[in-house]
């Protein structure tokens, strides 16, 4: 099916509409919460949580024997939370650093989860097939009730975030200071972490254990490039996340049903790459352009300063001098001089140059101006 | 205790303290012991800080200077000991205390502006959920002006120099309008102009009757900047008026026999 056909179908086809809505909401909520994770330097937390959720899914299945997605998600939620609090415990109670704790919990829980999955697959139960969809996700299995659940959690998350915005912000910036002001930082921290766990668990069915952390990080990393305001960053991350979901679903549906989760993650990756290169203030491209421009300006200023140095010695500041004089010393080219002429700083007359009044004043103010701009 | 208050009265000059406040203990630390893992960082510290002093805490690296401040402020949990602020537990007196952490303790690439950071100083009095309004904004702008940073209010904080970032932190504490200020190395990595600007503000605070406690590294400036000093090296070595106890004997006890070398650095 091609793209136009797809767009028609989004509005008419129940399944496609459900999946598109689901991935969009999921992208928005993970992008929003991902901003907090990124700013707390807890980028890997999402990865650990999603992997830690796997044994929960398997155990929930073993206990209930049913593949009801809500039951399995509760299992995922519980084991995700256990993993998270173990990570916190390891960091506070031992010498280990957080990256070690994250790596440890991630691989241990994931290993245990895989073990349980293989165990389940050996069971003579026809119902067991399809649990491995939680590894890489399968958006096609989303039904309306899943989307409702996502929407409700996103709504609650939004309300909590707006209510505790001030507290979230100050904790993210300076946790120790927040504590001295009398805020219960543990409470704020647990609130943020719980919502991150919730968002991840919601995404497992769609994107899967392995790729889920990208949903958390990519929109946030991309959004950070475009703004210096926390609220705009969170908003942008939500937008990027939602668009990743929508575009990812569209591409996967229109291209022979490519696996949706990976496509969504790749689309989010495109947002990141685009932002890293093209962001006006932080992007690589504009940084390079600014660098080149600054260097050119500096060359120009150097020339002007040198001319000023020569002109100073004469009573008439516009006394003409030979261009050769400049060449002999520094190798200035006619094109450099032409730029100064364009700015009306210098007049050229045959092989002679002379500073204009503006040129002289500009040159005289060059250094003082630079230092005030600095301050 | 008797000795401390006697020294305090002796040291008091009319310009820095009113006679009524002389002898009032602003911060009292009893038997404070803090350990990271098995190694004690602070050992059985007893400390009384009189109201209205501008006090330096000096000591070598690893002496527990920052730890002392953080334990007083409840950021670190001590193994033993207690802290009172004007005779009551710290938790009940938070509003009286402001903290300036080390500049390096936060990520300055955080997406926010200078004014926004200063406004955070008002969050404590606002309490949970309530957002800062016009009143808080006005107070924050005034604090920015006091530290000479008003022109930078909308600047993204990563685009500020180290000295400017330190001033922002100072403004954030000023906006709390506290009685006691704890500052962790406010002069670290700032240029001479900023250092003078900061010390002038600290002296103004003292003049207004506030108590200011500063973790300080530059021993040479202690007599010039401060009127009170605490020598710390895991244990408390000495505390009292600079002119009485800032001497070779205490410096040697605190820094070991090589203290003169560390002064030259």
TrEMBL record, chain B:
Stored SUPFAM superfamilies: P-loop containing nucleoside triphosphate hydrolases
Keywords: ATP-binding, Nucleotide-binding, Transport
Keyword hit for GTP-binding: no
Family annotation (PROSITE patterns): ABC_TRANSPORTER_1, ABC_TRANSPORTER_2
InterPro entries in the record: AAA+_ATPase, ABC_transporter-like_ATP-bd, ABC_transporter-like_CS, Metal_Ion_Import_ABC, P-loop_NTPase
SMART domains registered for this protein in UniProt: AAA
Example of a GO MF term: ATP binding
Domain ABC transporter: 27-259
Family label: Belongs to the ABC transporter superfamily.
Name by which UniProt lists this protein: Manganese ABC transporter, ATP-binding protein SitB
Taxonomic source organism: Winogradskyella psychrotolerans RS-3
